[in-house]
Fold these 2 entries.
Entry 1:
Amino acid sequence: MQFFMDTANLEEIKKYAALGLVDGVTTNPTLIAKEGVDFEKRIKEICEIVAGPVSAEVLATDYEGMLKEARTYAKWAPNVYVKVPMTFDGIRACKTLFDEGIHVNVTLVFTVNQALLAAKAGAKLISPFVGRLDDISEDGMALISDIVEMLSNYRYEAQVLVASVRHPRHVADAAILGADVATIPAAVLDKMFLHPLTDKGIAQFLADWAKFKK
Ligand code: G3P
């Protein structure tokens, strides 16, 4: 399973890139705004740190506007993937960008049909938002299961990128279901290392050794 980091914060990315755990990065307008930085400069900085796909999201909601932004972003670095929203214009732009050789991540996906449309339009990455479905008492992981099954029936290039990950269980469940990628906030990655019995076990080993060596 590929781990992408869902952040525009360089320190968070560097922390986990140092472990060799970062296969890509996803950003969105909220994550960029949170850092309060120049968009182009930050995407280029991330692309210097991470060799894998780095998603930069368009702000335009119309077809022509999306194309204009996407063609600019694609020039920033060879590993830039352009993020477009799952709308009619987004899918139209995805197809056009696919034909131009620009890699697209279709985001804000919430149904199998939306994922199917994105795959047919040539998306390299499809981003279903599990956390936001859970937030409204729907089953985000059920959608992942259905999309993974749907894509396995065909030979689309698209990979499932599980997004809106809120806790380690989302990552584990996504991996069990065979999703290609999970994009993970640093706070969730931090928690993935932890279990109280691990800490307890280490303490017990050290205590037993200390007694033995007395
Ligand atoms: O990559 C999409 C992700 O940043 C959205 O997460 O928690 O705002 O639903 P969240």
Entry 2:
Amino acid sequence: MPTALLVPEISQEDTFEKIATGLASDGYCVCTSLLPESWVINLRNFAKQERNQGAFQNAGIGKLHHFTVDKNIRGDTILWVEDDFSNDYLNHISKFIDDLRLYLNRTCYLGLRDYEMHLAVYPTGSFYKRHADRFKLNAHRHISFVFYLNPDWREGDGGELKIYLPDGSETTVKPEGGTLIVFRSELEHEVLQANAARYSLTGWMLDTEKGVTFL
Ligand code: OGA
Ligand code: MN
């Protein structure tokens, strides 16, 4: 059972304010050590167990009849998080994300109505080529977020997230356990090749209800 919500010494309000400010000024915000290590381990183990039971699917590109799997573009496997998942850690994170969504609506007038998220595993050797999460066929994604679930990530394990900023500069985020990255979904980014299995919880805040994003 999770005890404290995220990092006890930082109030949720301060974290939300930091994220809102980062999104407004830079288009992204990195919060390192946001999740306690015990949460990271629990969620990583949950993802591992579900994957071993065959619950994950190959991630694809596009929606409905445009959907294709192409490992030369993205090689991760995913499991969509549903409301009936009985994992307390996921429930806490869902509440955190929904509170963040409401905070961003209040402070940045974003009109975000829902969110969707999936667990992702990048097997050794896989990557996700440069792309944006908000694209012609799905313009409903406005804010992307990723919680990294690799308790013992170290240099050389790869799988860094590289974000391409509009001014031509780049920023690289290490997928270290407990880090949360939030960024505007129109920013192009890529996942560099993972040299060890890479775990994350990735999601999007939407301007519509989830489940109708193909409209
Ligand atoms: C994605 C994605 C980034 C990451 O799933 O669309 O870009 O760091 N993920 O996992
Ligand atoms: Mn992406």
